[in-house]
UniProtKB/TrEMBL annotation:
<feature type="transmembrane region" description="Helical">
    <location>
        <begin position="313"/>
        <end position="337"/>
    </location>
</feature>
<keyword id="KW-0812">Transmembrane</keyword>
<feature type="transmembrane region" description="Helical">
    <location>
        <begin position="234"/>
        <end position="252"/>
    </location>
</feature>
<dbReference type="GO" id="GO:0022857">
    <property type="term" value="F:transmembrane transporter activity"/>
</dbReference>
<protein>
    <submittedName>
        <fullName>MFS transporter</fullName>
    </submittedName>
</protein>
<feature type="transmembrane region" description="Helical">
    <location>
        <begin position="177"/>
        <end position="198"/>
    </location>
</feature>
<keyword id="KW-1133">Transmembrane helix</keyword>
<dbReference type="InterPro" id="IPR052528">
    <property type="entry name" value="Sugar_transport-like"/>
</dbReference>
<feature type="transmembrane region" description="Helical">
    <location>
        <begin position="110"/>
        <end position="128"/>
    </location>
</feature>
<feature type="transmembrane region" description="Helical">
    <location>
        <begin position="258"/>
        <end position="276"/>
    </location>
</feature>
<feature type="transmembrane region" description="Helical">
    <location>
        <begin position="21"/>
        <end position="46"/>
    </location>
</feature>
<dbReference type="InterPro" id="IPR011701">
    <property type="entry name" value="MFS"/>
</dbReference>
<feature type="transmembrane region" description="Helical">
    <location>
        <begin position="288"/>
        <end position="307"/>
    </location>
</feature>
<keyword id="KW-0472">Membrane</keyword>
<feature type="transmembrane region" description="Helical">
    <location>
        <begin position="84"/>
        <end position="104"/>
    </location>
</feature>
<feature type="transmembrane region" description="Helical">
    <location>
        <begin position="357"/>
        <end position="376"/>
    </location>
</feature>
<dbReference type="Pfam" id="PF07690">
    <property type="entry name" value="MFS_1"/>
</dbReference>
């Protein structure tokens, strides 16, 4: 059913209302379908090619077309119906797995097509999701929402990949993969249905195509260091989001053990996200983010003792424990910046697009560095140093964000608009 349009409501209770819970439901279905198959899709490509470069090209194309989709679809989301973009993104995600099912073992020959479809699907969904997220939350309940989303993500990460690994193990390679791809397809379709209960809020103004350039060209806006921090965040995401799962499979040769790895690390993440979402207040964001960053880097060093299932598990548990301290302040502070004043709120679509463009530039850079390095050498020491360098990028992000986090602690208003905008 279609719901009537309405303007964003203003809440100061810190609680989640029906619309935020519905958005959490759509988010949960999307990440469930993604986790069911996405955790193992990298392994699927690896098993077909035994080549990190093929996996890198898929990831690189995904991030490139994700960024392009964000920028182009921003016009439709701002001036039209953002819910159409959300449903189209979910629908393309379903189409992605339909393609994988149709192509079967020949999917590796169409890695470029799969990367493009995945990038467009992800870009459309997260653009619409993040704009709606901004509209249905405020500074009072944003940390609570992010904590709840993190808890859901951790629960999904605990249960769903383990179930996928179990299915693949008992059904056998290709049949198991086809089963989880089919289930993902069905869950994406369910997500489209739930999205019809979300309201499409009234569009405001015209889309500013050159907004990213205008922000970057002004040295005085607070967004310049924020974009640097987001780029640093994206560098780690692209490489670690792909390589860790494949490394677990390479070390164990078992999808079931990859499922067990996801179960343990997500269980830790569940507790950590719950605690951080409940107790990490805005005044503690800077210190919390600093502790999270340092700990995340520290847990990469066990790789220098040798990459094994044990060292991967130590890394996974440590990263899951401290990642919320880094991620929650990062996300909440950026969206608080968008909601600082009425002018920024009216440009919320442009700011979300800018945020995602910065993340995807970082993802592309991180993956390009990874691919270039392994093309030269795949020696264990080279790989470990590469993971340490890429994995240390959140430190750069924290340094970029410190002034903003400190100003938010003191509730100091910062300049967010590019020069010449009134």
């Amino acid at each position: 059913m279609f719901m009537p349009k309405s303007k964003p409501s203003i809440r100061h209770s810190g609680q989640l209302d029906r619309q935020t819970k519905l958005l959490l439901a759509v988010n949960g279905l999307f990440i469930t379908a993604s986790a069911l198959s996405g955790t193992f899709f990298g392994v699927y490509i690896w098993k077909a090619s035994h080549d990190y470069i093929q996996l890198g090209w898929f990831t690189l194309l995904t991030h490139l077309f994700m960024g392009i989709s964000f920028w182009i679809a921003g016009n439709g989301v701002k001036e039209g119906n953002k819910m159409i973009a959300m449903r189209l993104g979910i629908g393309l995600s379903a189409a992605f797995y339909a393609l994988v099912l149709m192509l079967g073992e020949s999917a590796i020959g169409y890695i470029w097509l799969l990367g493009i479809v995945q990038g467009m699907a992800t870009g459309l969904f997260w653009l619409a999701h993040n704009v709606v997220y901004f509209e249905v939350t405020d500074a009072d309940n944003r940390d609570r929402y992010n904590g709840s989303a993190g808890v859901i993500g951790s629960l999904v990460g605990m249960i769903v990949p383990w179930c996928s690994g179990y299915l693949i193990s008992i059904m056998g390679g290709e049949n198991g993969y086809r089963a989880i791809f089919m289930i993902s397809f069905g869950i994406f379709v369910a997500g489209i249905g739930v999205s019809f209960f979300l309201r499409n809020r009234t569009p405001e103004g015209q889309y500013e195509w050159k907004w990213p350039y205008r922000l970057l060209s002004d040295r005085h806006t607070a967004w310049r260091p924020v974009l640097g921090a987001l780029t640093a965040q994206g560098m780690r995401e692209s490489v670690f989001g792909v390589i860790v799962g494949v490394l677990v499979y390479v070390q164990t040769g078992s999808e079931m053990k990859l499922g067990n790895f996801a179960l343990v690390t997500s269980a830790v993440g569940f507790v950590s996200f719950y605690a951080a979402g409940r107790w990490l207040k805005p005044a503690w964001r800077n210190r919390g983010m600093g502790v999270g960053v340092i700990a995340m880097i520290a847990f990469i060093f066990p790789f220098f003792l040798g990459v094994s299932f044990t060292t991967l598990m130590v890394f996974g548990v440590g990263a899951a424990l401290f990642f919320p301290l880094y991620m929650l302040p990062m996300t909440s502070a950026v969206f608080d910046l968008i909601g600082q004043d009425d002018d920024s709120v009216k440009r919320r679509v442009e700011y979300v697009v800018v945020r995602e463009l910065a993340l995807n530039i970082g993802r592309i850079v991180g993956m390009a560095i990874f691919m270039a390095t392994i093309s030269i050498s795949r020696a264990p020491m080279v790989m470990n140093v590469l993971l340490l360098v890429i994995g240390s990028s959140p430190l750069l992000g924290w340094l970029f964000m410190r002034n903003l986090l400190v100003s938010r602690e003191g509730q100091t208003k910062v300049d967010v608009k590019p020069k010449g905008v009134v």
